[in-house]
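quick one
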Amino acid sequence: MSTSTPPTVVSSYDAPFYPAPRTCPFSAPEQHTAFREAGGLHKVTIWDGSQHWLATRHEDIRALLASPALSSNIRKPGYPEFVPHHSERAPRNIINMDEPEHGRLRQMLTREFSVKRTRAMHDDLLKITDELIDDMLAKGGPVDFIQDFALPLPSMAICLVLGIPYEDHALFQRMANATTDLTFSPEERLRLQEQALAYYADLVERKRREPGDDLVSRLVTEHGGTDGFPAELLPQQLNLLVIAGHETTANMLGLGLLALLREPGQRENLLAHPELAASATEEMLRYWSIVAAAPRRVAVEDVEIGGQLIRAGEGVVFSLISGNHDPSVFGTGEDECPADKLDIARGARNHLAFGFGVHQCLGQNLARVEMQIAWPRLFERIPGLRLAVPEQELPFKLDSVVHGLKSLPVTW
Ligand code: HEM
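structure w/ protoporphyrin IX containing FE:
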């Protein structure tokens, strides 16, 4: 392994804060763009005052996320913690495991989220989409698209996958909020986590007794702790699936709709060419790059990436939006806000919105199908769909772990 002198970095006291708020809701934080243009990795400070390397270029992000020298294990010294006590309290789940343990668990879950299995859900998801649209139409505009459509669709979808009654969604929503909203106290977060884990442990028992045609039933009947699947780890994996699949997709549904509402040319192109739904979804994922405070890693051996020597024990954080707006890969726009150009025909398959490497989003196919169905269907069924407030009044979550809109008032 080569070792070289690291490029000049910002001094420890004035290292900027991570995650950085977006000044323009459509663009990467200005500081991240400046770092990307300067090249190399840069030091940033997180909430506890500790400093970590920030990657902003597409090439560096991919190389780092693919490197076995970086660990996802939150319990390793030097890991950039999300929130106080995270490392000691977070349940052991797939997202914070390393190989080979991660790979074993992932293999068992991957089948459940394969392209084939998620495509087979198409008709069910279309039905849910239509019912939510029916409800919005019956209510009459203006409605809050986030509450009335964007949150329930992914909730219902994940309930369908796991075989959970949708009536229990208030619990997941609170739990998902507690994970992504940094204003929750550590005690409240722990209380909700314990409540959620107890719920999933009970669910596993119920499915063991009365299996159905769902992920939990298949995991308990096909693996059941006898072939290396650690059965006691099942409740935390279910908790993670619900949290990870919930607010992320909801935020994307809201932001994607907004993008289509403000750019009539893109919307007309999508409606005239329904075959663009897949490409439009990739472009929306790239354009918005909603995951703002992750991934996070810690080096377990010295490694040089992006011209920077990262020493064992040093943390690394990522600006996925900066990588996804890297002009050397996507050749984006010149305006100030949005700094980037939306092009639903771009075919942005190599974006990083779902991460990269072994931990790349497990639920990406499910999220994709939900979006591919929802946006065209909304305009097909509600051709007059439009914003119910001026765009400047929209409440963006500019400093959230996952970027999104607090509400999106629409009418028709
Ligand atoms: C638009 C929606 C979504 C976005 C933008 C998103 C983004 C991400 C990202 C960036 C990662 C990588 C984290 C890392 O490397 O540390 C990830 C991992 C993960 N996501 Fe998603 N996600 C979305 C939807 C979903 C859905 C619908 C599910 C489940 C139903 C899900 C489940 C997971 C899981 C389990 C992991 C961890 C995978 C592993 O560690 O092997 N996500 N997601």
